[in-house]
């Protein structure tokens, strides 16, 4: 099981935790939503929940719930600036298609079995 993050993503995670004043890392998940089926979720985390997998890189921590591990296996989290828009973005080999607005995605056949809704 491999999930990586770029130095830019790690820097943004550390920055958000510093701005907030506390935190352990970034909790990332997948939920059912949108026109294509799934969307990523992000929240700052103060603790590791039961069963969560922890990934550390570049001085930052990602926390992933067990039901999301297969969907995110092999993915890389980046933090990208495009014009005035800044956002976390995944390069995820398990994604089949994304919707026109880019907010939701579908999985390739057989990828991400066991994703929680």
Automatic annotation (TrEMBL):
Coiled coil (UniProt feature):
none
| Lineage top rank: taxon | Bacteria
GO biological process terms held by the UniProt record: iron-sulfur cluster assembly
What GO CC annotations are associated with the protein?
cytosol
**Pfam families given in the database record:** Fe-S_biosyn (PF01521)
Task: Outline the extent of the Core domain.
Answer: 1-103
Family matches, as InterPro entries: ATAP, ATAP_core_dom, Fe-S_cluster_asmbl/transfer, FeS_cluster_insertion_CS, HesB-like_dom_sf
Molecular function terms from GO: 2 iron, 2 sulfur cluster binding
Please report which protein family the annotation says this sequence is part of.
Answer: Belongs to the HesB/IscA family.
Known PANTHER family for this protein?
IRON-SULFUR CLUSTER ASSEMBLY 1 HOMOLOG, MITOCHONDRIAL (PTHR10072:SF41), IRON-SULFUR CLUSTER ASSEMBLY PROTEIN (PTHR10072)
Write down what this protein is called.
HesB/YadR/YfhF
- Organism of origin is Albidiferax ferrireducens (strain ATCC BAA-621 / DSM 15236 / T118) (Rhodoferax ferrireducens)
